[in-house]
Amino acid sequence: MSTLQAVKQDELEVTQQYIDEVFETVMRRNPHEQEFHQAVKEIFDSLVPFLAKHPVYRKNNVLERMIEPERMLTFSVPWMDDEGNVKVNRGYRVQFNSALGPYKGGLRFHPSVSASIIKFLGFEQIFKNSLTGQPIGGGKGGADFDPKGKSDAEIMRFTQSFMTELSKHIGPDTDVPAGDIGVGAREIGYMFGQYKKLRGANEAGVLTGKGLDYGGSLARKEATGYGAVYFVEEMLKDQGLTFEDKTVVVSGSGNVSIYAMEKAQELGAIVVACSDSSGYIYDEKGIDLEIVKSLKEEQSKRISEYLNERPEAEFYEGGHGIWTVPCEIALPCATQNELDETSADVLISNGVIAVGEGANMPSTLEAIEVFLKNGVLFGPAKAVNAGGVAVSALEMAQNSGRLSWSFEEVDDKLKEIMKDIYKTSMEASEKYGYSGNLVVGANIAGFKKVADAMIAQGVI
Ligand code: GLU
């Protein structure tokens, strides 16, 4: 008899009812926060068999405690543009859960940033960080600031103002931010400089994703993208498949996307399309990554300019179009809800065999449902993209030991961590009667560790 069968049907029903009630509370307390509701719903749906089997979590009200951030900060970020105009943006930091260690998670600078976006990202981060096996809690932050078209001096003034407030709430043992969309090595550098000046101390471990000259880790830049491909490699391996000669589509052209493409190509895949917010490029012979790197990492240019160097490639305007490109492996690495039910249907009719989420929550709940129903190998974000934050934790470890490890050392550890996340998620899916469903597996495995730590630490 499977573990699930051992749970009586009425227990499952009672648990479902209880979870629905807690979800009602989430909706009532956080009205209009659609992305946050979506992230909570995905986790809650996975937890029914687990909570039904182990009443201790309900007895300790773990679910209710987990959905309430330990602290949610909002603050104003005033700054001056190059013309001398005074501007103001809203800054956020959610310190969601510290059961496993200091709050850890990136900062996103994008005009779409809101309390809902920060809370969905922070909530996901709790379970993602737990899956890495590293001692890190969950947090996230950012601002509704649009870095597009801003001068270097404007970026510096904005990030310094942002850090002036944030510095009061973070520290190497308290809360350790990093990058996310719109925040890369340059922004981390300015923030680190400002933090150091305000604190009067060089606390390297306060931020991760730093430059290599002042405490950054080798392979951090590559970690999310490489980690995503290592994870999908494990999914394929279980079916006797590899990346070799597979046609791959990777959305986005930021840090995650670029290094997912790089690793997929290294493993013999043909990456035929990538995108930015303006549209996507299709290059039948395989994307020339050096051109994409130069456009995106050095010049901040639109992806359409790829055609200047490769006139035989094609450019198509618009966001979702990239999912109409036939492929065997799809890696959504752009942003939340970029892949909906219609796109999922198109991918399936074009013969997709595996989907690995490099971005945070890139598939809608309906799209995930479509993939699972059709037997597509589906790797959920909190497992697939955990490599970035995992190497951030390795950067923290190097900082506190005043060490710096080689690229190979970090990359080897990353590979092991990704294999481990796959194994743990797979085992949890089997144990609770959802064999091969990595959404359920990752959610249960991530949840269990945090929940156990919360119970062990008492009602605080
Ligand atoms: N922003 C990344 C994520 O979504 C990395 C966070 C970190 O390194 O702290 O996981």
Task: Describe the structure in your own words.
This protein is α/β, with parallel strands linked by helices and 460 residues long. It has 3 domains: 3-67, no CATH class; 71-207, Rossmann fold; 221-384, Rossmann fold. It is 49% helix and 15% strand. The protein is built from 18 helices and 12 strands. The strands form 2 sheets. A 7-stranded mixed β-sheet has the order 9-8-7-6-10-11-12, with helices on both faces. A 5-stranded mixed β-sheet has the order 1-2-4-3-5. It is globular. The mean pLDDT is 97. Bound molecules: glutamic acid.
List key phrases describing it.
460 residues; alpha/beta; Rossmann fold; 3 domains; 7-stranded mixed sheet; 12 strands; globular; binds glutamic acid
Separation of the first and last Cα atoms: 39 Å
Text of the CATH class of the largest domain: Alpha Beta
Number of domains: 3
> Structural class of the secondary elements?
alpha/beta
Number of strands: 12
Low-confidence stretches: none
**Overall pLDDT level:** 97
**Which architecture of the largest domain per CATH?**
3-Layer(aba) Sandwich
Report the bound ligands by name, code or SMILES.
glutamic acid
- Find the CATH topology of the largest domain: Rossmann fold
Q: Work out the strand percent.
A: 5-15%
The biggest beta sheet is recorded as:
7 strands, mixed
Helix and strand run? HHHHHEEEHEHEHHEHEEHHEEHEHEHHHH
- Read across the widest sheet, the strand sequence of neighbours is 9-8-7-6-10-11-12
Number of helical regions: 18
